[in-house]
Amino acid sequence: MPATVLRAPDEHMRLATSAPFVIAHLLPLAAIFTGVRLSWVVLGVVLYVSRMFFITAGYHRYFSHRSYKLGRVMQFLMAFGGTAAAQKGPLWWARHHRNHHRYSDTELDLHSPLKGFWWSHVGWILCAKNKDWDPEDIRDFAKYPELRFLNKKDWIAPWALGIASYVIAGWSGLVFGFFASTVLLWHATFLVNSLAHVMGRRRYATTDTSRNSALIAIATMGEGWHNNHHYYQASARQGFFWWEWDPSYYILTMLSWVGLVKDLKKPPVRVKAASRIRDGSFDMGMFKAHWAKAGQALHNVRSHLPGHDPVVAEPDLDPEVAGRREQLEELIRANRAALQQHVQSTLDSAEELARLSRRHDRQVGVAD
């Protein structure tokens, strides 16, 4: 696990604007007093599964990674269905996700595990820092006025779905069928950002700490094969092998049979066989994570030295003792600086080794 770093003031939860998020978590608790009927559970499951598909296949695999093609009408429907999950608009979602891949597991990563579980799970959404988005970062889709409209009016679909749930099953359908499934949907999606970088196994050597987790894949209709995804982001299929559960891809495949989805991208055989950690590929991601912990420990050395607490004043020391302490602290500073330089030099060498390894894998693939 990467070393934890401190968060900036604008990275803390906004209490006022986060109130609806908190209230939505409390509403399903009303089922304690009303009981739960099978029809409410069925409604909740249908809303969970359908909206999870729009997030995984739409927001993620289409708008973020363009791993297949859609006509304009289907593109709009996929975006509208995604907004029903109450995870903001498609342009906001895709833009921020592209940023995550660009800076994965660094301090510039929007939901980096460097800043702790809470931040990577939900804190990054509830703070002020990530509220806005730049259309220039997603010009390929921001050029469509209907997508800009849905991004701006991202409340329309969840409100319409909430009203429909009430019409179908009354207050219980709204509270349990809609709100309970929405809360579960939120946290299942957020697990990919948080736990999928700290829990599971790594098949491929990547520059981040992404993992494959069957449990997360089950909860998210195939998004748990996160190491596969970070290794080959262009693929619409994230479960690379038949035993890796990926129902989002199965549904996309069926839609391709009737022409609604086109050019589904899959990982080539040579790609699936390359860069495997078990075959000796250099695991740059985990290497950086471990060395980052060492660097953070070095950074913290100074704060543990005696005599540097701004609150607790030390009694007067004998000049000879004070002199020996100063010499010791100077020696610690010198060794810490040398170690920090060594850590950075090692990371630079590791980056070059990883780059050369990727080039070698590509050349081997072309030769094959």
Largest sheet: 2 strands, antiparallel
Query: What is the string of SSEs from the N terminus onward?
Result: HHHEHHHHHHHHHEHHH
Shape, per Cα inertia axes: globular
Q: Roughly how many Å is the radius of gyration?
A: 25 Å
Please provide a written account of the structure.
The protein is mostly helical and 368 residues long. The chain has 2 domains: 9-269, no CATH class; 282-367. The chain has helices at residues 15-26, 31-34, 38-64, 72-83, 90-102, 117-126, 139-142, 145-152, 156-194, 214-219, 226-231, 247-257, 269-273, 284-301, 319-367, and strands at residues 69-70, 261-262. Strands 1-2 form a two-stranded antiparallel ribbon. Helix 3 (38-64) crosses helix 4, helix 6 (117-126) packs antiparallel against helix 9 (156-194) and helix 14 packs antiparallel against helix 15 (319-367). Residues 309-313 have low confidence and may be disordered.
